[in-house]
Every structure is written in C-alpha cells, then in structure tokens.
Amino acid sequence: MENNYDVIVVGAGNGGLTAAATTAKAGLRTLLLEKHNIPGGCASSFRRGRFEFEPSLHELCSVGSKENPYEIYNLFEELGAKVDWHYEHNLFRVIAKGKNGYDVTLKGSVDGLCNCLDEIEPGSGPKVKAFLNLKSKVDSAINYIYAKKGHPNKLVMILKHADFMRVASHSAEEVMTALEIPQKIQNILNTYWCYLGIPTDELSGMHFLNLLYGYVKFGAAMPHYRSHELSLSIADVITKNGGEIRYNSKVTEFLYNEEGRCIGVIANGQKLYAKEIISNIIPHNVYNMSSEHVVSERSLKLANARGMGMSFVTMYIGLDCTPQELGISDYTIFIQDDPTPRRQYETMNDGGFYIVNCLNNVVKDSSPEGSCTLFVTIPMHADNLPADLQPCDYKKYKNNIAEKFITDMEKTLGISVSEHIEEISIATPATFARYLDTPGGTAYGYSLNRWDNLMSRISAEKDDFQIQGLTFCGGHHTRGDGFSSAYNTGSAAGKKIVNKLKGGM
Ligand SMILES: Cc1cc2nc3c(=O)[nH]c(=O)nc-3n(C[C@H](O)[C@H](O)[C@H](O)COP(=O)(O)OP(=O)(O)OC[C@H]3O[C@@H](n4cnc5c(N)ncnc54)[C@H](O)[C@@H]3O)c2cc1C
Prior knowledge:
FAD/NAD(P)-binding domain; 18 strands
C-alpha cells in the first residue's frame, strides 16, 4: 500500500470543494473524487432550451462585499477564487394568506429592516435590533468554546457568556418573545425558518440569529453565472495549486487498517490511499460503505436517531417575456397559507408554503433578452411523495404539482404565467436523491431538531465522529445546511488536516 496522496476528499459539493482547495493551496497532495462529470453537487446549473437555470441557490448568506467583507467573501478571497457577486438589497416579500395575513416587503440593512418593522408595528424596530445585537455576544462565546475544543469551563460560560446561554439553549421564538418582539413581527422575520428546515419554535435561537444577521447585515448574494460559477471558481483553485480532480469517480468503499483507521477509498474499482480522508458525503452513506467494526456504537446510534433534513419539489420555468411584462418586480417572494412557521411546516407537503424567485430582478441578463426565469421551491420530505407512486405515473404527478402551484401563483400574485411558458423542468425529492445520493434526497443533511442543533453538534463533534483519519464536512455536518455552512465546514476540515500534516496554519 502506497500513500500517493496526503488527502483524498470524497464529493465535490460546496464542502468538498473548499476542503480540497484549502489542502491543495497549502501544498498537500490532494485528490478530489466526484461521481458526476461536473463539480458542485447542489451548486450547479443546467440548460433547457435557451435558458440556463440555477438548481438550488435562492440567496447566499454571510457573504459581504469588497467594502464590507464577511465570512464567505473572505473565504473566497483567501482561496483566490474569483466570483462576480450580485446583491439583492431587499430581504424578501412575504405574502401570508388568510384572516391575519399580510403582504410586506422587508428592506435589507439593520436600519432599513428595523424602520420597515417599526412601520408595521410601532416600537418593534429597537426590539429586533436588540435581537441582532446578541450576535457579537454569541460569537465571542463560540470562539471561546472552539478555543477550548468543545469543552468550555462551565463557570466561565455562566459568568462571561450568560447571553449566549440564553440564546443557545432556547428556540428562536422563545428568545424573541423574551425580547418582547410582537407576534406578527416574529412571524414575518421567522419566514426564514425554511432556509434551515425547522420551524422557529424549535430551531435554536443562536442558529436563527446567525442566519438572520448574515442576511440583514451583509445582504443576500448571488453569482452572475448561477452557482456553477462558484463551483468552477473553487475547482480552478484546486487544479491551479496542483490538486487533482477526478470526475465520474464514485466512491464505493472506504478502506481501513487493522486499527480501524481510515486509509483510503475505492473508486472505479481502484484502491486509492491517503494519509487523511475528508468526506463531503453524509455519514449514513459512509458507514454503509465501511466495515461494521470501525463505526463506534455512539456514531451508529447518532446516525440512527437523526432525522433527515428537508428536500424539495422545484419548478424551473423559462418564460418568453420580461419580468416587467410578467408583472413581477421582487426577487424573492414567500407565499404562505398561514402566518405561523409551525403551521407552515405542518402544511408544507400540501403546498402551505412555497418560494418564488425571479433571478432577472437581481442578475438582469441571467436569461436571453426579452425573457425571464422563475424558480419555484416547495419544501417537502421524501416521505410525503405518494407511497403508491409508480414510475409510469411520475410524469403525471409532476404535471399535477406544476398545475396546482402555477395556478396558485397566478392567483396570489395577479400575474399570468401559463401563457408565457417556453421551458419547464420539475425536480422532486426523487431527483435530489438520485443526483446527490442522499437518503430521501435531503439537501439539508440532518434535521436541526432541538436535540441535534448547532450547539450540540459543535460541542459533541469530537465524541460523535471518532474514526481516525476521517473528517466530515458539508451541509450534513456541525453547522447545518446551506451554502455558507458547507463552505465553512469544508474550509475548517481542510485547515484541520493542514495543521495536522504540516502544522502551523
Ligand atoms: C432546491 C434547493 C434550494 C436550496 N436553496 C439554498 C439557498 O438558497 N441558500 C443556501 O445557502 N442553501 C440552499 N440550499 C442548500 C444547499 O444547496 C446545501 O445545503 C449545500 O449546497 C450542501 O453542500 P454539501 O457540501 O453538503 O454538498 P452536496 O451539494 O450534497 O454535494 C455532495 C457531492 O458529493 C457527491 N457524491 C455523493 N456521493 C458520492 C460518492 N459516493 N462518490 C463521489 N462523489 C459523491 C455528489 O455528487 C455531490 O457533488 C438549497 C438546496 C436545494 C436542493
């Protein structure tokens, strides 16, 4: 057995790409293995007719800009990955139907948002500002926990980081209620629950705060050429720094030595060895590709106890008219049957909640002149695909969904979509399961339930993942789903390995 590589990274999703770019840039002999013929996983693009569609990204959080850089902008700069960023300056428009419903558009920036909310419910702005101000306190506590490698001194936590304890151990709604944020304002802000896949009466206050702060303070960012541009720019860093990417290379087995250390993988029937392996693919799949004795009882129990995160039904629609002709001027519109996140979560499989994006309202030339695209996202769990759905009925099933949501969208927004459709493509949890190879087609990794939230994941990481030589990253890992989380965990995994093999980074 020969170690041809220092590091093998499995999966070229957002996490795997940043991990491999980090190790390659640090001079480690890096091999990235991807089962598809292009990088990115969720972060990709596809063509139908004259349209190039974005398959996943509504908006990227925590990017920042040249003038006001934040996590993701800095990460791309650090790697030397070039991206033409575009920004949406409103947060979103939300239409909640029914008796207590509303139709409001929220402005970006802390002041913009708080002024908007003050107009809706006088006095609510400063309370929301107080919520956002907790972010710096949470950050200093997280930095302390990381410095103590997940085992902080309890007294220091109580005396110095009491606000963190209050936010981290309560749901977003509990924290907002403690700050006396009115219910209607909570409902409006908590629209973002869907980006983390768990309603805000259960979702950790700290996690929600991170997301909200990332969007409010730094705006939502999109690359010019769909998320494929992001993936290509990082893949370029890998190869320019001597790393190797092998596409069409599905890993089918993880290899271990007698002590249970991960030492390699098999792809296309070839055994490949490295000092360290980084997996961008979900632990469920890794354990199924590993011999039984190497996975600890704790890790197995954790995997079996976890819920799968959300998947989606998505519609990608190319229209033969401009956004103006269509009558749509917003980029992101959330449409809800009920204003409360719990109810939206409970009814999402019946269409109680969906998102409409018109990319041309941020990236004007994202489709040919005189045309525009709509991206409609309906959150759904794979369990909610009809149990008796047969392959021969699948097309009909998708057509029925399209008809239902296009009709609702036309009625709710007062626009006429059907007569302008030139191309339409529909994905379901079955599509995501096939493309990503995740259980139930989850695009969000594991569900961020109360017991399996950001805080418990960070503090238990060392005990939960004990296989020597194997490090995980991606939307299924500690920080949960999303582009920025996957990029950050990939970068952290890469840096950990560089430190281990070279020291001093
Ligand atoms: C419809 C939709 C909308 C979304 N909207 C947003 C949004 O607006 N904002 C946001 O931040 N996030 C959004 N997300 C979530 C986000 O895309 C994901 O959380 C994130 O991209 C996951 O990244 P990852 O690193 O875990 O990799 P993944 O995207 O899961 O990629 C994993 C890679 O591993 C490869 N692979 C799998 N098995 C193997 C194997 N055996 N061998 C080799 N390669 C393998 C796959 O082909 C894939 O390329 C959305 C997702 C979807 C589907």
